[in-house]
Every structure is written in structure tokens, then in C-alpha cells.
Amino acid sequence: MNSRKQEILQLVEKNSAGLTAKQIAAFLHIDRSNVSRYLNELAKKGNIQKSAGRPVIYRPASGESTELTPSAEVSFDHLVGADASLKVSIQQAKAAMLYPPMGLHTIIFGETGTGKTMFAECMYQFAIQAKALAKDAPFISFNCADYAQNPQLLFGHIFGVKKGAYTGADTSTTGLLAEADGGILFLDEIHRLPPEGQEMLFSFIDKGVYRPLGESSQAYEASVQIIGATTEPADTFLGTFNRRIPMSITLPNLATRSLDERYEIIELFIKQEANRLNQPIKVEKDAILAFMLYDAQANIGQIKRDVKLVCAKSFLHYHTREQNSLLIRKKDCPLHVQKGMLKMKEMAERFDHFLEGKGDYLIFEPQGTEVEWSQDSDSNMEVYQEIEDKLSSLNQVGVNNTDLEKVITKDVDAYFASYVEELTQTSTQRGMIAADIWNLTNRLYDIAEQRLDRMYNEKARFAFALHLQLTLDRIRKGTEIIHPDLNRIRKKLKTEFQVALDLSTLIEEELQVEIPFDEIGFISMFLSIQLGQEEQLPQNKVGIIVLMHGNSTASSILSAAQELLGSSNGVAMDMPLDMVVNQMYQELLSYVLDNQSMFLNGLLLLTDMGSLNSFATLLHEETGIRTKAISMTSTMIVIEALRMSEAGRSLEDIYQNIQTSFETIVREQFQADHEVKDNKKAIVVTCFTGEGVAAKLYERISPLVDQSKVEIIQMQFIEKATFKKHIDGLLEEYEIKAIAGTVEVEYQNIPFFSAYDIFDDQKLKVLKSIVKDEIPAETIVNSLDGTITHVGSLSILVETLKSLVQQVQSQLHIILEPSVEAGLVIHLAFLVEALRTTGLERQFPDLTAFQKKYRLETDILKTSFISIEKNYAIQIPDDEIAYLTEAFIKNQIDTPFKLYTQN
Fold this sequence. Notes:
903 residues, five-stranded parallel β-sheet, globular
């Protein structure tokens, strides 16, 4: 038994009157949530008794109290969807457990929060109930990601350690295989096992014997069924595992499950909270709808935590507002849950049977019995007791109810912070950073937030924690750390440098290392960035004035751009050809002076030619308003300028992005006319040193790509303008598919992934999709040969359509997977063939409404197809344009980055 758990058990056994988790935590100086987890495990095994009601009292198993929390037996029947979405998975699981003589080793696939651990527990309980396992057979659970960065410790946990196997191994210890003998060993995040550990596990699977770490002479036998779980997709999982583990089960994510099942999941979690509080919970109908519709990225696990949070806040309102019942309203839900109601209009009809006859509120009664899952860490949360304790202590000092709620709401949010962190930080990320480094990073950044009066989000903290861990490795190895531009950093980041000096002292005291002076420069740079931080949009956006020759040129272009965007932003000023330049300037100057409040964040002039471009300098000198001008303006440039202004981008940002973007377009057009460069693909990984974090990103990305086709380039990032110049140089030789690093760079429409993203398995899949090999035009031509016969050269048509599909992606600012691109090319080829022969008559449903909603997108597609229509003497109907627009929009990759014109 775990030493901490043994210590808690002994303390409870000495106190027959019983103890609360809070009392035990205070006595043993242990975190209360950990105490709760151990207590629940002891109660589950019958070592101690757990009372019903609050506060929960834990007593010795031999105590007189018989008032135990009622519980039901764990089984597949308690899983929502057992007869629907999980039916096949459950049948597979039962077959695996009953397979003679001792079951099949199994791998469970599923995204974070889909319930893999609880599914494995159901498999174990089923085997006991079916007598495939003995009643006292062990179920041992272990997360490989927790020790993925320390292979020796990881192998030692699983296989055991022989004394002297490595420095610090002072005694021989048995491993999890020995503990699980006769039962099941559940290995979560099994893909995190290093290659050496995989071979040791495969040897055990093949032969039923294993050797502890450091043991060379003696092998040990064990009868253990392995159940592994992974967030990796089944089609890309390690082939070695697939060959060794015969049964694979895939659990569905929340998005693929029915609305009925989603309602059952929400109902189950609310009833669990009603059970813990022993009173009904009344929920506003709109709150239920929001929970059913919002995007729960971490699947069922996220719904569970969000329900707990809103129930805790309801419990707080119940006490501080003296309400008659526990009430949950939509406005009490987290903002990301409330956003679910934005989908209500398009899905209203599907909710009729949920809402019919139920009024404005739904009441969830306590359900009496509750399944206690031994692997459910959330079941140990005692937030309600925390709220009552806090209320009691604050009442004693005379704080009124209004202030009470403000104070405790912060505590409730803080109480859930660790659970939110679990949702936003994958086990892969947790495994990357040692616990002491995480804790130290958070303390350092908390200090920095106070000293610098700014906020640092999880992405920024993760990037620094990874950098710090790697820096410590370099210091301990005696590797020299040199900052190439330390003097400039000391001058430019004076405040951050001073804070970094103080933080480095704390690092030295905490970790007993000497931080080089150059490293303080790198720490200053980390403090100066706010990775992925959403900036507050300025109240005053950059002003846009379109100024052109002609009686209505500027007005027409601006009107078209506004109509396509659904925007009223921007001003048009037309200059008749008989108007003198000075008169035009005076009109512009008068307008700007009369409306100076519109231009507090700067003014961008979009002109067509000639002397109008010089107006920017004159305006700035006379008014002091920062002004930039772009000449040779087109409708697309006006659209981009308006869109970025609406998004709150700065004047310099808009100016640079438009200049760069349209220079690139022009350059690509000339290249297309004269030469087609077959540039090799590349991914750039970058950090301040160009070594530590960049090297880790390289290690994470390299297994995903064929490096004979995609090069991973490590670069140092010291200053943004210099970095962009390096990117420009690389673009001469490479097609850069993505940039990954510690400093967010939005440049040349290249997708950016933070270090945090790279260690998130789901977002890494997006990167893999972006760099995936394109399907060659020759392959598409061969697949269509003999089918498409009325288009002249099939090869020319396919090449033209491939180029067109890529052009549309660029203009819509989306990315499609290569297989989707190929599918669209094939679809377009058949469309051209049909229009040249039999014609098409299908109709797009609600065409007018779709065109109104996606006016800009459909216009881009219409314009893009003009050359196809001309070359092949066809007319593409509006209905087909709508279908194509829908295909592009619905099939775009859900990226963790935003392209520069998106808002």
C-alpha cells in the first residue's frame, strides 16, 4: 500500500469518533485533494467507513457507524450509450475478457475525456462478475506519461528495480507487473513508453516473463492482462503495439454521439451533484440547452467539470442569497458553455422532444444510489464543504453577504483551476515538465505578473517551463550559455531585465544552481512576450480612407468591400479628373480634422496612383495623426484592410501585412508565368537560444514527417524583424508549411504553433495534416482516365484545377487536407464534364440565405472560376457555386492558429 495511504489509514484507525478530510490534511500536512483521493480508495476497499451527508466523516472499518454512502456496482450498464454508441465497443471488451485462457491484451483508443479509464474499470468488473478473474484479482492503474521523461523511473515502476541498478536504487523494489499478478495492469498513455520499455513489455506479452531493471540472472513469471489506453488515432498508432496487442477498441468522442446521449450525460452529472448535496437541483432550460450545444473540447470530462463548477456556484448563491432551492441559470454557466446557445437557431427542431412539456425549468432529484468509480479523481472534490467552511469563517468576522459572494466566487474559481489545467494541458505536456519545474515556473510568473502588471497564460508559462528545464540540463552539463544580443536586451527591456535578475536569484536558491548572466537575458525575453494572449480590441479602430481618381472609383470599390464583409467601416473620397491635387488634399485634411476622434489609432490611406500617395506624410505633419498610405489599391486590398481594422489590428500591423501579402502574390504570379519552383517543404522550429526548446520541438515533430520530403529547420529568435528576414530568405528555397516556437509569429500566412500546441496531441495532428504529402496530379489523372472524355487534355484540366483549389484556399484563408484537395479536384473535373455534356439541374437548399451569409466566399469562388468557364465554354450555376463554397468551408482544418486576416 502507498505509504501516504497507509499513514492516513493508521490515523483514521486511531480515531474511532471519525475525522474529516480537512482535519487529516491539516494533521499530516498533505494537500486536501490528495487526502480525499486516498480516503475514497480506502473506503472503496472497505478499509474504512465513509458517512453520508456533510461534512463527510471517515471512521475505522470496525466502528459502530453503519451510515455508509450507498453505492451501486460498477458495470458496463452504467455507461451512457451502452446500447447505442458504445454497444460494439462493449461487445469487443467482453469478448476480450472472456477469451481463453486468460483474456486478450487490449488497447483502447479515444480522445482526452472520452472515458477510457472508466471503460477499463468496467472491463475489470465484468471479468470478476463473469468469473474470468478471481474476486480479489488486482486492478492496477498507471499513467506512462507521468514519468515519460525519466525512463529509468518509468521502467522501475512497471518492472521493478534490483538494488544497485542505477544511482539512487538503494533497495530492490517490486514493480506493477508483480502487483498485478492474477489481474489487470492498465497502462494509460501507453504510447509514451520509450522504445526500450516497449521491448520489455513486448517480451512479457510474448513469453509471460519479465526481468526487473538491473536484473540479468533471474526472470520472473506473472499472469497479467495488459489493457493500454492512448489518445493517438488508431490509424497512426505504433505498428509494434498493433501487432502485439490483438484487441483494439475505439471509444467515440462527444461530437459523434447523439443528442439523447449527451442529455443523459448531463443529467447523470447533475444528479450526482444533487446526490452529494442531498437535495434537488433546479436548472433553467436555456442552461441545459447551452450544455447540450457547447463545444466541449475535452469531451465528457469537460462536461463533468463544467457541471461541477456551475453547481458549486449555485450552492454559493443558495447560501449567500438565501434562495429557497438550488438554482442553475444560463448566466451562471461559464462563458464557453453559454456560447452553445449560438447554435440554437440552426438546431431548434432537434430539441423539440427534449423540451416538450417541461416548462422553463427542469428539476433533478437525488438518485439515492451512485456508482463509485475507483479511477474517478473528480469524485473526491469537496468544494461544497470548502464553501461552507469559508462562509462560516467569514460570517464570524462580520462580512456581509454581498462581499461574501465576491470573495468566495474567487475561491471557487481557484478551486477549479487545477481541473481546468487538466483540460487545457494534455498528459503529454505534464510528462514533459518535472513537477518541481512546473511549480517553480508558476511561482516565478505569479511574481512577474505582480511586478510587471501583466497576465501570462498557460502557453507562455509552458514555453518558459520547457526552456528552464532544458537550461538546467545545459548548466549541469557545463554547456556554455551565450546570449548574442545581451546589451540590446538590457537597454530595450530594462524593467523585464530587473525582474529577471530577481527571478534568477530565486531559481538559484530553489534549485542550487548558478544562473549565467546571459541566461538572464533569455528570461527577460520570455517575460516580454505574452504568447497566445488575446489582446483587448481598442475602442477606436484604425481609420480607413479609400482615395482614388474618378467620379465614383473609390465609392464603388469601398461599397463592394463593405457589402461583401457586411461592414460599415471605412470612408470613400472620389477625386474627379478635373480636380486639382491641392483641392483634394484640403478636402481630406478638413475631413480628418473634423473627425479626429475616429483616427486616434492611426489612419490608412488606400490610393490608386500618383501624388495621392504623398498625402500620408503631409497629414501626419499637419495633424500629428499616424498615417500610412498604400498605392495601386485593389478591391481585395480594401477588403483586407477593413477586415484587419475590424479585428483591432494596429496601423503598422495592417500596413506590413498588406504590403507583404500582396508582394508575395505578385511574386508568385510572375513565378507562375516564368518558372514553377519545386521547392522542398519545411517546418521552422524556433526559440530564443535556437537549441533547447527548438531541439525538443524537433524531437516531437520529426517522427510525424518524412524528412526526405519535409525538412525541419531549427532557428534562433532574437528579434522579430530579423527573424522575418530569415524566413524571407528560406522562402526562396523552401515552401514553409508551419512555424513552431516560443514566440508567436504571424507572417506570410504561415500557420504558427506554440510549444504548448506541439505537446498537445490533438493540435499535433493538425500539423501532421498540414505537411502531409499532396496527391500527385498524375495519380488523379490516372484515376479519371477514360471517364472524363470531353475536356481536351485531362492533364491540363487537373493541373489547372489543382492550382485553382490552392488559390481559393489562400483567398479564403483556410487549409484543406491533401486528400480533401484531391477530392475537390476530382469533383470539379466531373462538374466540368457534366456541364459540357448532360448539364446539371440540382438545387441548393435555401440558396438565397446561404449567399447572403457567405457573400464574400461565394464571390471569391465565382471570380476564381471565370477562367475555367471561359476556357471550357461552360457556365457554373449559382447552386453549384454554393455547394463548392460549402465544401471548402466545412472541410477546412480546425487550426490552433489564426491566419492574419481572420478575426
